[in-house]
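Sequence in, structure out.
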Amino acid sequence: MAGTILDRSLGALARLSERTVIWHKLPMVLGLIIAIGHRVNLRRHNLVDTETAPPDLDEPTDPGLPDDFDRRGWRLPDGTFNDRDVPWMGAAGRRFGRNVPLKHAYRPRDDQLMNPSPRVVSNRLLARKSFAPVPHLNILAAAWIQFMVHDWLGHGRNDKSRVHDIPLPEGDDWPSERMTALATTVASPQGPADESKPRAFTNVETSWWDASQIYGSSWQRMEKLRRAADGTRLDNGKLALDERGLLPLDEELQAKRPGQELAGVNGNWWIGLSVLHTLFVHEHNAIVDRLRLDYPRADGEWLFQKARLVNAALLAKIHTVEWTPALMDSPIGRGAMRGNYWGLAGERVITGFGQISDSEVVSGIPGTPTAHHGAPYSMTEEFTAVYRLHPLLPDDFTFRSAEDDRVLQAAGLRDVTFGKTRALYDHMSFSDALYTLATSNPGAMTLHNYPNVLRRLDKKPEEGIYLDLAAVDVLRDRERGVPRYAEFRELIGCRRPTSFAEITDDHEDQRLLEEVYGTVDRVDLLTGCLAEANSSRNWPPRFGFSDTAFRIFIVMASRRLKSDRFYTDDFTPEVYTPAGFAWVENSGFKEVVQRHAPALAPLFADARNPFFPWARAGS
């Protein structure tokens, strides 16, 4: 009851403050309390289930999974049986949930879907005029979030039977007469109840924070990652690497995409993903070596699955206490995210004495009881929408030597993607690539900063098929029923804007928004969030994203930990092994880099956060 009273009090205080003063303008302690109150309200009102007839599962259904797979102590590849009472929850192939009531999640009518044309939004509001960097972040921060998103969600292959025609404005320089995009594949109806509900969509990856981007979301994919170049299975518990310590090539894709590296998820590949995947495959193998010291008689499967548990938990910790505080670099932002992990007690107390309370506010979420807050755990469409962070990518890269900072190679964004990524390692070492990303800046999340390379992707130019990813980002939110910006803010407990001046302080952008959209209520969520970059009210100081996006982050970031038994009830030395538990406790991103690229350690020794720019070699 005390917890309920506390939650109600915090929620009421947050609602009251929203009418008067925004949380990030308050003193740190009060601002942190208000942010916790917003999370209380979001948990109560903004976690919505879309499943209508989920399956009953008594046994795992992942094809090929061994009969003796320890579904209590290991993560199942497809995400089933994380919650043993509701085995299908969070599994690959289950539906995306929502952060808005279902009555607000219907796709607009066909005559509204393209109004205004996503291409007009792309041309006039999103297109990069000149690169606007974030000076206090490095490109590893941009790579990291895509690395995480690939773990959490994927809408799978689009529906080839349904094509959207995106209207081209008069005088557009598009290289084809039409701009088309395949529709998102809709989840199969589960029963009559579906007919009265908005369309739902399927997550082809597991929704759990289980490092599925490294390990895959099926036993078949996981097995593929454990095979040497000659096809033999590695029975020592390790993931495969080539003779240079790089990721193996994805043999099934070589004819279509030569040079494509293999990973659990390897779509939208570029050098940033390649570096992080390579780093954490090495980390998995290092964890295996450590566990083998304490368990010399353990078989390779046990070592592999325990190492996966440890590696996934380390990724979750790095994201919570290092990456997110780098993107929310204010006292309140850092306090909120570190509090998610260590609570008000703080790192020293929790590390020294362990969990001192079942309260997540006191001790942080890891190790506290599992809770789903009224809805089965899932990723959500609104979470997907606010994580559209393509402006983080720069147009150009200058690769430099980690030894003396000399220029090794200049490359455009196109030159560091898909199969071209692997060719970069013919001209530089892995450490050189990592060093370059760590000493370069990403782009700012603002209007007029979307990479133009991504606004014209040559998919099949011989067939006249090109893609404007910025326009498609806008379209995806609309077709999936994500409310537009003003309505969205109201539905998540924020003040609803009634004028363009309440979205951004920039007068020129106010004018452009009005010309493109006509009314405030028609502004897309993506556009509104980017416009907030120039709003003194809606963009917290030293944040990498808007206050609107922050509201979804605080509820979903906590949920990824609180719903997962491997971070709550089963976050124990008994499940992880004492050595594995200590590995998570004593490691962060700096320690990972130091283990696998030790020569770079002096360059980040003085960095308060490893996602801030590192020192230059030779300086």
